[in-house]
Every structure is written in structure tokens, then in C-alpha cells.
Amino acid sequence: MRYAVLGTGIVGRTLAGRLSGLGHEVVVGTRDPATTLARTGAGPMGTPPYAAWQAGHPGIRLAAFAEAARDGEVLVNATAGQVSIAALTGADAGHLDGKLLIDVANPLDFSRGFPPGLDPVDRDSLGELIQRTFPGLRVVKTLNTMNCAVMVDPGRVAGEHHVFLSGDDADAKKSVRELLNSFGWAESAVLDLGGIETARGVEMVLPLWLRLMGTLGHTDFNFHLQGAEGSGSWGGH
Ligand code: NAP
């Protein structure tokens, strides 16, 4: 499969590296490849410059959002939530139509400092906003409720724990389930919440997740739903 991972931050890199390691063809999307490769300073949270990461992953191509989206059969949104619409607009709607978009972003709003708020929130969500703005996409929200290292390697957290799916397209969710299985998520660990409007709940988990990170002092944790065993999907999608 050819994946276009839109986003050059730690999340995009982690997902791109894992997908490539599984044998997929991967292109990473950015606003301007030359600018991204020319950065020399560490990013937020001490992330090394993209060029240093790229040197260790020579099989992964960097391209402008539009070229990446054109080449990817499946797209991953790993951009900052406040700019995801801008990034996807840059990707060009003509390159999005009919494609599965796996949305792992969170609409964190740092405009009033830390901890961030969420925008949109409550009666809307980033997942819905993306689906509404680009109706040709088949958006599946998943993996946004955990650190990116756990996304691609659930074994980092001991015991059973869960990952959620939200989306309107049953086939798209089936494909994402299979991808999650290939990352190491057991079938029983994947909980289908229903349509894309259920992205509201998993995005609103973020304030709690951020508080837990502060309390625990690390990011290798996740949610385990006691009582979820054998429940399957209640969402009806
Ligand atoms: P990030 O810093 O949140 O986002 C980086 C990406 O946003 C870059 O590709 C950047 O483009 C793009 N971007 C920034 N401003 C832009 C603009 N004005 N227009 C278009 N694109 C713009 O990266 P991250 O920390 O890897 O997080 C990615 C997403 O995953 C976020 O939504 C985050 O909330 C979510 N998430 C993170 C974790 C985690 O473990 N950190 C876990 C779950 C979910 P350039 O490449 O051109 O610079």
C-alpha cells in the first residue's frame, strides 16, 4: 500500500517509520520540502531536525502536501489540529476524493497557553470538521488518545488497553482495523464507537490525557475499558 503521512512532527515520523518498516511505500507531506529539510534547530519537545531523521530513513520520501496526497492511496493526518484544514487544503481536494484519511490529530488550542483548550469542541470535532470540509474523503479518527510511540507499538503498555475508531464508512474502518492489527493491536483492543460524530468524545479525552501525563510523569500509558470484553461495536456503523 502507498501511504501519504501528512505531517513532519514526531507523530508523522513515528507513523511513517512504522509503515515503512511494515513494507509499505511511504511519502511524508510538508508545506515546503526545501524549508523543512533546511531546518537545523530542534523542534518542539526537542524533536531533532527533520533532515536528521530523514537520513536514518532513506526509503521515505518528503514531498509537498499536494504531491504526497496525490501519490498516497491512504492518507494520514498528522498535522497540528488548528492547521489541519489548511494542510488538507494545500493537499488539493482533487487528490483527496475517495481516499481513506486516518485522522490522528487533536484540535489543541494553545492560544491561551498551557494546558491547551480544544477548538472545535463539544458539539463539533476536528474529525467532523475534516469530513464536512472534504466530503470526498472517508475519514476515520483513531489513535489520537495515546502517545505516538504507543500508537505503533501497543506492547509498550503492559496488559490489555484500547484504541477507538470513529467514522461513517464501514469499509474504511475495516481497513483501519487491519492496519491497527498489523501495528500489534489485538482485534479485541479495537473499539468501534460509531460515526464520525463520535470523534467528539475521543478528542475531549485530551485534557484528561495531558493531566495524566503530568501525574504519571511519562507517556507509556493508555486507557483500558473494564467490561469491554466481547462487546464488539455498539455504534451501529
Ligand atoms: P505538530 O507540531 O502538531 O504538527 C506538525 C505539522 O503541522 C507539520 O507537518 C507542519 O508543516 C504542519 N503545520 C504547521 N503549521 C501549518 C500551517 N500553517 N499550515 C499547514 N500545515 C502546518 O506535530 P506532532 O507533534 O507530530 O503532532 C501531530 C498531530 O498529532 C497533532 O494534531 C497532535 O495533537 C496529534 N497527536 C500527537 C500525539 C503525540 O504523541 N505527540 C499523540 C496523539 C495525537 P511543516 O511540515 O511544513 O512544518
Structure notes:
This protein has 237 residues and is an alpha/beta fold. The chain is 35% helix and 18% strand. The chain has ten helices and ten strands. The strands form two sheets. The chain has an eight-stranded mixed beta sheet, with helices on both faces. It has a two-stranded antiparallel ribbon with strand order 6-7. Strand 4, helix 5 and strand 5 form a beta-alpha-beta unit. The two termini are 25 Å apart. 38% of the residues are buried.
| Rg estimate, integer Å | 17 Å
Bound molecules: NADP nicotinamide-adenine-dinucleotide phosphate
User: What is the assembly state of the chains in this entry?
Assistant: single chain
Q: Averaging pLDDT over every residue, what do you get?
A: 96
Please give the alpha-carbon distance between the first and last residues.
25 Å
Strand order of the largest sheet: 3-2-1-4-5-8-9-10
- What percent of residues are in strands? 15-25%
Beta strands, count: 10
| Weakly predicted, low-confidence segments | 233-237
Helix content: 25-40%
The sequence of SSEs as H and E is EHEHHEHEHEEEHEHEHEHH
Individual helix count: 10
Largest sheet: 8 strands, mixed
Shape, principal axes of CA atoms: globular
Counting helices, strands and paired strands, the structural category is alpha/beta
Layout of secondary structure:
Layout: E1 2-6, H1 10-21, E2 25-30, H2 33-38, H3 50-55, E3 61-64, H4 65-71, E4 74-77, H5 84-91, E5 100-103, E6 108-109, E7 117-118, H6 126-133, E8 138-142, H7 148-151, E9 163-167, H8 170-183, E10 190-194, H9 199-204, H10 206-216
NADP nicotinamide-adenine-dinucleotide phosphate binds next to helix 1 and helix 5.
